[in-house]
Write a structure and sequence with these properties.
The protein is of the alpha/beta class and 413 residues long. The protein folds into 3 domains: 6-173, Rossmann fold (3-Layer(aba) Sandwich), CATH 3.40.50; 188-268, Rossmann fold (3-Layer(aba) Sandwich), CATH 3.40.50.11420; 276-408, Rossmann fold. It has helices at residues 22-30, 72-86, 103-114, 133-141, 157-167, 170-173, 206-217, 230-235, 251-257, 267-275, 278-286, 312-325, 359-372, 379-386, 390-393, 398-408; strands at residues 10-16, 48-54, 58-64, 91-97, 119-124, 146-148, 188-192, 221-225, 243-246, 264-266, 296-301, 330-335, 348-351, 376-378. Helix 12 links the parallel strand 11 (296-301) and strand 12. Helix 11 (278-286) runs parallel beside helix 16 (398-408) and helix 12 (312-325) runs parallel beside helix 14 (379-386). It starts with 9 loop residues before the first strand and ends in a 5-residue tail after the last helix. The mean pLDDT is 88.
Length: 413
């Protein structure tokens, strides 16, 4: 489980004021000295991540954050980093010392509730004080489970583990499949995997590996080919595959070599469904029709890498979009967890598949864009739309295809 990607882990955010014992709690939970512990307030600066296995939930990722009450110029920057963690938190843990409850704890809990993130409250240093009966009743009304701990002595860790297990969100326990529902048991999926300069030496990229595992998990099987060998590979099959999935960069050639009777999509579109709201991405892709020369487009990548000469996000997608629009667009690029608090001002946001992320963070970005009235779509959908094969790429997803057709005919919103 140590190798489970972060995107498949339950993200548990630890929030609270400075010196309430967040780092001590993380160390006690993981039984390791993960975070530095000190009596000096503000010891934790940037978020500290620790993956572990928490049965029966499975792989989780604890995120220790800086105190929400940090002060000064650097303190404000640390608080901003802490607030970014809300975007990817599946389960929030509000930590307060000795039964205290201030406006800071209240703000954290309300932020989690506003985002519909399950939350529980830990009163650490419980040997020094207890919460009032009135506070406990209020938290019970808010359906925020309460756990008492003394993290420095490892007390209350079993109770905290049980509370986390009970509070784990249902959408994590029954997470969306990547493509397991598209390939019946005993059937074949053909995966088209270009080997280019950005492919890691000796390895496949994460979406390809995860898709292969997903197929195997449902007792189906797959054939992996490069785009040049696809036509020959299909001709050797005694019956057609259940689906062909391609890297988005090879969409046009793969579409030409795959008979219309065989469902076709891309890894990026599979991840648009797995990590986010597919219908929202469909609506975002259709906003390409409204782009005009001079418009601002934000391209967002969840991982950080050194771009090559023909990078998909910096070169190919801008080229295809500008060719479709018929003029020059103004592109801005962001990476990792960097993302504008207010995306207004952009006519379109094009996001990568988000294979490194959990579903919560992608949905948060989609929500932020919806609130700002800015359309957002992803790499694969942008490429398919720009190349004129959007409807075919949505074929395996009937609801998304219906959304597209409704919007195209003017029936959708």
């Amino acid at each position: 489980m140590r190798g489970t990607p972060k995107g498949f882990r339950l993200h548990i955010g630890l929030f609270g004021r400075r010196n309430v014992g967040k780092s001590s709690l993380l160390n006690a939970m993981t039984r390791q000295e993960v975070s530095i512990v000190s009596d000096v307030a503000g010891t934790t600066t940037d978020p500290v991540e620790k993956p572990m296995e928490l049965l029966p939930v499975g792989p989780v990722l604890f995120i220790d954050t800086a105190g929400i009450d940090d002060v000064g110029t650097l303190g404000e920057m640390r608080v901003q980093r802490t607030k970014q963690v809300f975007d990817r938190t599946d389960l929030g843990v509000v930590i307060s010392p000795a039964g205290e409850w201030t406006d800071f704890e209240e703000q954290i809990l309300q932020e989690l509730r506003a985002r519909e993130i399950p939350a529980l409250v830990v009163f650490n240093k419980s040997d020094l004080g207890s919460p009032s009966a009135a506070l406990l009743e209020t938290l019970k009304t808010l359906k925020a489970p309460v756990v008492r701990t003394v993290a420095s002595r490892g007390e209350g860790m079993l109770e905290l583990r049980e509370a986390i297990i009970k509070a784990a969100p249902e959408e994590f326990i029954n997470a969306p499949t990547i493509m397991g529902d598209l390939v019946p048991a005993g059937e074949l999926a053909v995966l088209v995997v270009p080997i280019d300069l950005e492919a890691p030496k000796g390895r496949l990229i994460l979406p390809q590996v995860q898709s292969i595992r997903d197929v195997l998990d449902v007792d189906a099987y797959c054939m992996v080919v490069k785009e040049r060998e696809l036509r020959e590979a299909l001709s050797r099959l005694t019956r057609p595959p259940a689906i062909v999935v391609t890297d988005s960069q090879g969409f046009l050639k793969v579409a030409g070599d795959t008979p219309e009777s065989i469902p076709l999509t891309s890894f990026s579109i599979l991840f648009a469904r797995c990590k986010g709201d597919l219908n929202a991405f469909v609506r975002g892709a259709m906003a390409i029709e409204t782009l005009a020369p001079g418009d601002r487009v934000l391209v967002a990548e969840s991982c950080t890498h050194h771009p090559i000469a023909d990078d998909i996000g910096r070169v190919k997608i801008p080229r295809w979009l500008q060719r479709y629009v018929g003029g020059k667009l103004e592109f801005t690029h962001v990476q990792g967890h960097d993302f504008p608090d207010d995306p207004a001002g952009y006519k379109l946001i094009v996001h990568c598949g988000g294979c490194m992320w959990n579903r919560r963070e992608m949905l948060t970005r989609q929500l932020r864009c919806r609130q700002a009235g800015v359309p957002i779509t992803n790499y694969g959908m942008t490429i398919a739309y720009s190349l004129g094969i959007f409807e075919r790429a949505l074929g395996p997803f009937p609801a998304a295809l219906e959304t597209y057709r409704s919007l195209r005919s003017g029936r959708g919103k």
